[in-house]
Amino acid sequence: MQCTTESRAQFWDSRKPGPQDDWLDDAQLVIKLPVISTIWSSDPKPSDKDASILLVTSTGDPMDNSDSKLHPQPLNISLTLLERLVETSQLSSPYTRTVLATRGFHMSHHLQYGAADGKPSGVTVLFRFPRNSSSITCVLRLRLADYACVCLLFCRDDQVLHDLRRRFTEEASLLRRNPLHILTFVFAHRKETFDKWLKEIAYDVSEAETASGMVPLTWKRSQLRPGRLSHLQDLDKPNLLSHLFSTHTRLCHSELVAQYGIKFGKFCLEVVDMVERYRTAAGFPETRLVDRSDWEEAIRFTLGRWELVQDKVSELLQRLRGQCDVAHSPA
Q: What is the pTM of this model?
């Protein structure tokens, strides 16, 4: 894992009012470890009260590509402290360590059992959400009895982390009713950022079509960036072909991200079904229907948007491949 030697992270406790935006170093984070331990050491009793949620967030990526010299972004938590956080949060398992040590994208949920009675006691949710340049890594544990939750959330992009933390703070009351809304917030945010990225790529596709002239007149852009048309139409240089293939590379990754988004939505629905099924099996009361409905509706709404955007990605890929074929064919 790629970590900095000194830590810089934020800690959010749902039981405390007001903003909690201070950046903490190693010594300050160590002080928070007993707070995490207290959540798990307390005797869980099912109730209608708000769930206790502890959230540790930081920038960077535990699997930053150390071969890249341009934009190194290791996780801003020291390796020693990361291991202590994982252990104290009762997230220590081969699955967690594999996700934190793997660059590939991931999503999985795992059931935990009580040591004394062997009954289901908690659920661990692990995921790494693309795209690579702004991936989000999350390891989360939810106790079935009272929905107590500890979550470690890491974002490569500083703005992404800021946006998510702001959403968590603004929607704190919703999170306390069901901490799994952490998943819905991440899911919706990924959709918004993906839309912005895809809009840029769609512009590049339209730009290539305008330069090649191989589209209906009404499809051509009336304006391009200054000097862009002459640059792409320069017959002495392979500018258009280079533009087409670089755009194709980004679109291929877009297709992967869109497919992941759809799978993630279905995965989230699996998680809520599993939580309810095992809460019932363990003798705990079912989640209030209104809380479960709010959660499922949020997921299904965003899932539908991901499914539609995948269709747009497919369209752009087909259009771009047609342009590549024309540009690469002999005159």
A: 0.89
